[in-house]
Amino acid sequence: VLFYHSNEGLEIVGTAKVSREYYQDPTTDDESWVAVDIEADKKLKKPVTLLQIKSDKRLSEMVLIKISRLSVGPVTDKEWNIIMELAGMK
Question: Measuring CA to CA, which residue among 53, 1, 6, 45 is closest to residue 22?
């Protein structure tokens, strides 16, 4: 999981791990709403800003850019590796 600050900073700042797979969201009876639990994993050496992501052509198809209103989106292995490179983690 990439941990992204969507309100302040607009940047990926770390990684996290799913500690509990999806389950019914306890805040609603709507069965289409689910939740997952995550735990902090690692802080990135350098945050990767939304501006960096948008300006890197290799990330032009990233869901974060294409459907920016989503709170959660998939990240391909290729995108993960590019983000780690930009963050100084490789």
Answer: 1
